[in-house]
Amino acid sequence: LSSKPFVPLEPTSVDVQTAEPFRLGNAVQNFFYDCYGIAPAKVNRSKFALKAEISHDFVSCTAKLRVHEVAPGNFIVEVQRRSGDSVLFVSIFRRLTCYLAANGFTAATCN
Questions:
Q1: Band of residue 104 on the pLDDT scale cut at 50, 70, 90
Q2: Are 2 and 61 in contact (CB under 8 A)?
Q3: Of 6, 11, 42, 96, whose CB is crowded by the most CB atoms within 10 A?
Q4: pTM as predicted
Q5: What residues have CB less than 8 Å from 88, skipping those under 6 apart?
Q6: Is 76:13 a contact under the CB 8 Å cutoff?
Q7: Residue 39: pLDDT above 50?
């Protein structure tokens, strides 16, 4: 997580358990292509973050995803809405949670 103290996570965060973080990174990146047919607009490998612009059913949303390592084998995927439709954003978050679970990750929302 961030080195700054008391930095809260977004309510749209997913706690993921995996011994293979590279698989998690690939799954997060592949999520946009598999579910929306697009590639992320920006990928920052050093921050383990990516940004995507999604258009679906005549609305659009820009989302940023960042993966934080909490402990060995324990990660948090934080999803932030940067702009656009909030209903589409919630749909993206729910779909990501299901996508991670369907791809073999133990995932739970962090509310």
A1: confident
A2: no
A3: 96
A4: 0.84
A5: 54, 56, 57, 59, 60, 61
A6: yes
A7: yes
